[in-house]
Amino acid sequence: MAIPTALITAGALVGGWQVARRTGVRPLGGVVLAAGGVLAGREWARTTDPVTTAGLLGVYVAAFGLSHPLAKRIGAWPSVLAVSGLTGAASHVLGDRRARR
Fold first, then answer.
1. Whole domain around residue 89: which residue ranges?
2. What is the C-alpha to C-alpha distance for residues 90 and 84, in angstroms, rounded to an integer?
3. What does residue 25 show for φ and ψ, rounded to 5 degrees?
4. Mean pLDDT confidence for 9-33
5. Given pLDDT bands bounded at 50, 70 and 90, which one contains residue 77?
6. Is pTM, for the whole model, over 0.90?
7. Which of 4, 49, 52, 74 has its CA 20 to 30 A from that of 40?
8. Pairwise CA distance, residues 30 & 17, whole Å
């Protein structure tokens, strides 16, 4: 894949939040999140094993869920950036870097 899954997952988390925030249509942000999950998930399924794929998808979904309570504690931007960074790092280490080997 030309675009690393780390960029896809982190970008979809930030992008989905921004789309929802700027349009006021939360389901539209969900479409961005879902598209990122599908793109990354397809690549992980192609380049890693099923356990890693499921784990990375779990990290992606958990990051979305965690961003909400975290935002109440540290603010929206810091929360989204934190979960996006962690998700991107996991995607890189367990998916992208492994695929290059």
1. 5-100
2. 10
3. -110, 95
4. 97
5. very high
6. yes
7. 74
8. 8
